[in-house]
Each structure stands twice: as structure tokens, then as C-alpha cells.
Amino acid sequence: MSVTAAGGFVAAGTACGIKPAGRPDLALVAVDGGRPVPAAAVFTTNRAAAAPVQVSRRHLAATGGRAAAVIVNSGNANAATGPAGLAVAAGTCDRVAAGLGCRPEEVLVCSTGLIGIPLDPAPLAAGVPALVAALSAGGAARAATAILTTDTVAKEVVVRAGAFTVGGMAKGAAMLAPDMATMLAVLTTDAAAEPEALGDALRRAVAGSFNQLTVDGSTSTNDTVVVLASGVAGSPAGPDELAGALADACASLALQMAADAEGATKLVRVEVTGAASHAEAARAARAVAESQLVKCSLFGGDPYWGRVVSELGSAGVAFELDRVSVAYGGTVVCRQGAPAAHDAEAVAAHLARRQVAVTADLGLGPGRAAVTTADLTPGYIDENMRTS
Amino acid sequence: MSVTAAGGFVAAGTACGIKPAGRPDLALVAVDGGRPVPAAAVFTTNRAAAAPVQVSRRHLAATGGRAAAVIVNSGNANAATGPAGLAVAAGTCDRVAAGLGCRPEEVLVCSTGLIGIPLDPAPLAAGVPALVAALSAGGAARAATAILTTDTVAKEVVVRAGAFTVGGMAKGAAMLAPDMATMLAVLTTDAAAEPEALGDALRRAVAGSFNQLTVDGSTSTNDTVVVLASGVAGSPAGPDELAGALADACASLALQMAADAEGATKLVRVEVTGAASHAEAARAARAVAESQLVKCSLFGGDPYWGRVVSELGSAGVAFELDRVSVAYGGTVVCRQGAPAAHDAEAVAAHLARRQVAVTADLGLGPGRAAVTTADLTPGYIDENMRTS
Known about the structure:
Two copies of one chain form a homodimer.
Chain A: E1 9-14, E2 26-31, E3 37-43, H1 51-63, E4 66-67, E5 69-74, H2 82-100, E6 107-112, H3 121-134, H4 140-146, E7 155-161, E8 164-171, E9 184-189, H5 195-207, E10 224-229, H6 239-259, E11 267-275, H7 278-289, H8 292-300, H9 306-313, E12 325-328, E13 331-335, E14 338-339, H10 344-351, E15 355-361, E16 367-374, H11 378-384
Parallel strand pairs in A: 5-6, 9-10, 11-15
Antiparallel strand pairs in A: 1-2, 2-5, 3-4, 3-10, 7-8, 8-9, 11-16, 12-13, 12-15, 13-14
Helix pairs in contact in A: 1-2, 2-3, 5-6, 7-9
């Protein structure tokens, strides 16, 4: 069910011909009946934002935070495609609006795939009417499949929170970094919420999930997280109840993305404590998590903590070598900036696991933060060395 | 000759037992006769600076910029080794000073290799006297070999500039990034120069060479570039003559390092023009050069310029998508932020070369900068996934 688990939503997915070989590449999530409801979104910070990001931003601003549908294509990012790309993104919204009987500004649009390739409007023109006709509460799984690119599995989530539900689907397997990733996520809820409160809750949820994920340090041109609130389940008990459910949903989707990172053999949690501030802890954790050398060591299951210390020392945060400690899976291997006697077999056993924890304590202050990443493997290179 | 090409210097290299299997691991460069001469150095900006960096900084400060020798070991970085590591670094200087008949503060020390492994002083105690006894003008090649770690070739340079000479040796193959790299370089000149002028010239030379090199974005704990000026060839014609020769020497060594980057199949020059400032151009060029995704494309010879545009857009510099152009080897593939008709065969032929040029024009201002990098390959992962 995922994106249609919350009351008031329908979805559909199809193959319209953007991808070769008839693979699914077009998804639609809509409010049942095509009426606009409160909506909010978080978009990429990349200044090379793709055409669909520009159009969706404009539409949300024009409606004051209301939307009736989200149309998503995969196989082409419609990024760096000039005025023609903007016309295709806007035209796609027009077609969806015509099908649903809403205004074009009430449709949001997302694309994911290759950058810099003109997006042919013809498959979309043919695909959208069929997709609108196929909308149903049972279409969530097909929608979740149609937004994937290099992902190996669909990412779906349902969170039941008392009287209301949050459902969602996402894609993302590389070019994953704060803020956010080559990732799209469409969330729905039947809770009632005003656009502003919905936006606040979404931003908090994204900050605690997708923005704590980094696979390769690259921030994509197309990242978008959207939430629509149908309101059919009424108001949540308190203002934090919806925020909590959204956070849970985003956290689940983020973890599903990290676990499906291109070529990854390990899911790695890097936690930094004892930093001068939370912001410095986050910066230090990212420096470790994005280090090619650390990620190679993690792939090899090699307990080479020297690279962790080196990245901490060059992360641009307050740092005193003789206060630093590093642990793998809780076993301290470096204390006061120097080698610590430890159980090497315990460390080796931990590093051989699929889920690995690297913890560094800077010994300076109360700042703490964690990020999730993956190892760097030949599979990642193989996946990314050729796009065609 | 390299490091002994300039008049007044002797060198030696040996295997003292830090590395296994009798591989060369200890080098000494000294002023003939052991007298102190003007010296300058540039050290890593990493706050986890290794013990030898801490000791060499202290020695240079104590002498006001004079040194008689530089002792370098490979196979162990003596970094994150606590007070014991500091004692080993200082003790090594003591032994060299005893052998040469100079003061310990007149000896600089460098180490390169693994971080966080205690450095056993015993091999150094035995090796230093033998090394001092072996010092000769013919020892440069053995010294250049003894400082290598994962390098596949020795890096040496000789620059003749009128009446004086600059010679040098360096090592570095990964963990290469501004500022500077896992790199050591020892330079010598027979030009006469005061420590302050020598330091200025060295900093300019480093800024234009080693600091424009990035292999993996990691800044090591041990980076050191040292220059000693024996003065036996007298004063240069003008203040810029020595700076120019030092810059040439550093540029050559930096290029030799990039060409020997771990696992690399391509030497890549990324140039950004049209930025709002030179600093923003440098930041943007580094973002492209350090992108795992761009480096994977370069390994595959794939003309996927969308990744270049995406990195430029997220580099944190002034950026307007519709002003950006990108070229490979001079062939423009993206113009005004959108695909440009181009000779695809010319691009493919250029990307198949060992030396590749990526140029991006931001179309905003006069800022320009270039960095040199390498592609990301399975060989890099293979080299770095296990340290033992």
C-alpha cells in the first residue's frame, strides 16, 4: 500500500517509454477525486536545480502550499536541459491537471535519472492519460517501482500513528549526500495539517533522516521530498504527533536507501561525540563518512583507525589529538590519540558484519551527531563508470 | 643527483628494518660538513599532525629557520602515536645530530606510512649511524627510493637557473589533497637566501603545485615540504629567480605524484574559468576534481558532463545554470547549461587518452583556477582496502 495507505490517496505506475525495454518509468500519486490538499516539500540545495524542481517550487509558491498530485518520471532527470526542459516539466503538470480536473499549479513534478539529456515530451503525453485512468488505492507498489533508477529494490514505508497514517515511497542509491541525495520521496498522510505546520514537520523529518545519509558526498540536481495531507483522518492529537510519524517514515526510507547504496557491501554508522558543538560533530562525522580512504578500509574490513583520526584532524573543527578516541562496534582501538590495547578479534568480527559502527569521541564538548554511509567498492565504480 | 645536484649537499638511503623484507625505508639529506644553513618548510594543516611534524616545527622555530639535515623514514607515519611517538621523533634527531656534529634542533624529521602504529626506535638507532657514514653526493637516488611508500616510481627533479640549482625528491600517491597530500618533499638549493625569503618562495611554490593536486580529497597527518639553501652558489640575480626555480621544481614533483596516483589510469586537469573570484574558481574546480562520480566517469571514458554541472551547482560558489559551459579537451559539450551539439567522436577520443582536460566556464566573472587529479579505479580500492 505504502503511498496509498493513508486515506484519500490513489496511485499508479507505468512504463511510458522514457526508459528502454519497457521498464516502469512514470508514477502518479494523487488525492482521490483530484482535489488540492495541504502540501509541503523540501528541495535540493544544488544551484543547478533541475527543471522539475524549479517548476514544483513555483507551483507550491503559487498555491500557498496546496497540491492535488505528484507526477514522477525516472530514466531522465530533466536537469541541465535549458528552456526546453522547463517546458516539458510544466507541460507534464498541465496534462496531469487536465486528467484530474485540477489546476496545473496544483500538480508537483519530479524527475530522476541522467542529467543533461533532453526529455522527450512524447512518451509523457501518451503516458499521463493512461496513468490517470489507472489511478487506484492498489497502485502504490507499481508507483514505487516506476520511480527507481539504479535501485535494486523498491523503498516503501507505512507508519500508523493512532488515528492517522503516514505512507511513503522513495528512490535513491547513489549521488547520496546531504542535503539530500539523488533521491525522491513522496509521502502522504490522512492527518489534517495546515501547509506551514506540515512544512515544519517535513523539514525536521528530513533533517533527521535523509540529511544524515551520505554515500558519495554528491548533492544531486533533483532531490525532492514531498508530503501531501488529505486530512480525512482528522487532526492528530498534538502538533508533534504528525512530526514524529513523518520522521519515522523518513528514517525508514533513508535506511532503505543506504542499504541499497550502489555496490555497497556494508551499511556504516559514523557517530562523533565530544565535539565542541552539534554542528561540528556533524561536520566531523561527514568528513569521516565521505572519506574515500575510510570507505576503502571499511570495504576491506580493515581496522585502520588512523584514517579516521586523520579525517577528524582535517575536518575543520576544534580538535586536539591527545583527547581523541575511536571505537569500532564499541571496542576502543585509539585512546588519547594513540593506539589502545584491544581485542583485535572482536574488532575483526565487527568489521566483517554487514552493519558497522564507527564512533569517535573528540573529548572536547557536548556536541554529537551521526551519519549513515556505505563502503566504497569496485561495484560502485562499475555502476558509475559508464552511463550508457 | 636530484637532491644533491645543488652544491653543498650529500644524501644517503638505506633499509633499516622499519619496512619488512629489507625494503629501503630511511633517507638522510644533509649539508656537506653538517653545518646549519637557512631552511624553510610548509607543513600539513591537519590538526592531527604527526610527531615528526610537531618536532620539525619546534626545531625550525628554535633555530629561527636553519637546519643542517633532514631525516626521513618511510613505512610508518609516527602519527597518532602519543608521547612515545614524540620521543622517537626527537630521539632520531638527536642521533643524526650526534653523527653530523650539529645541534639536535638543526635536524628536521619526516615520516610517512601507516598512522597509529608505534614506531620502534631500535631500527632507527641502528640505521642512523650507518646512514651518516654513507652520506655522499652520489646518494640522492638511494635517498629518493627510501622515502617511497605505495609509490611505484621515485620522484626527483633538478632545475638549473643561471648560477644556481634547485634539486628535490618527493613521495606521494594517495591521500593527496590540498593542503597538501600524503606527501613529503625535500628540496635543496645552492642559492643564498635568508630564511624568511626562502620561506616566502617555498610557500608560493607549494601553493602553485602541491596545493593544486587532489587525488582523493584527504589531507594527511604528515605532509611536509622542506627546503635547505647552502648558499655556495651565491645570491640569485633577483628575488623572484629563486622563487621561480622552486616553483618549477615543485610543479614537476607534483605532476610526477599525480601521474603515479594509486590505481590511476588517467591524469586529469580540471580548470574552472568565469568564476566570481579566483578563490571560488579553485573551490569549484576542487569540487569537480574530488567528486567520486566524476572520477568514475573519467575512469570509464564516459562523457557524462551532467555530473560536472551538478558538482559545480553544489560547490557553494556563485552559479547560474544558464551561463555554464563545459568542455572535454576543448570540445564544448554543454552550453548555457544545456546540451550542446558537438563532435562526439572527438570527445570520445579525448577521454580515451591518458591525459584528460575538463574545462568549465561559469560565465560570471574573471576567476579562474585549475587542479590536477586522477580517476577513481578498482586499483585505488584494491590498494587501499587493506593495509596489512
